Amino acid sequence: MLETILLVISVLLIAIVLLQSNKASDAGQIISGNNESLFGTVKERGLELFITRLTALLGFLFIAISLALFLM
Known about the structure:
- This protein is mainly alpha-helical.
- It is built from three helices and no strands.
- The radius of gyration is 17 Å and the shape is elongated.
C-alpha cells in the first residue's frame, strides 16, 4: 500500500517541479551586471506560491514514506 502511495507522490513531485518557474535564469543577470532586482524583495503570489508549498509538502511526504518503508 505504501509503495503505491510513494509511486503516486513521486510522479506528482516530478510533475510539479517541472511546472515551477525557472529561478536559475535570474542568476544569469548577476553575472551580466543586470542586478537591479538582486536585492529587491520579490514575493511569490497566487499559483507560484501554491506550487512552491505543494512541492514542499510532496517532498516531505516522499521523505517520510521512504523512511517508513526503509524502517519496516
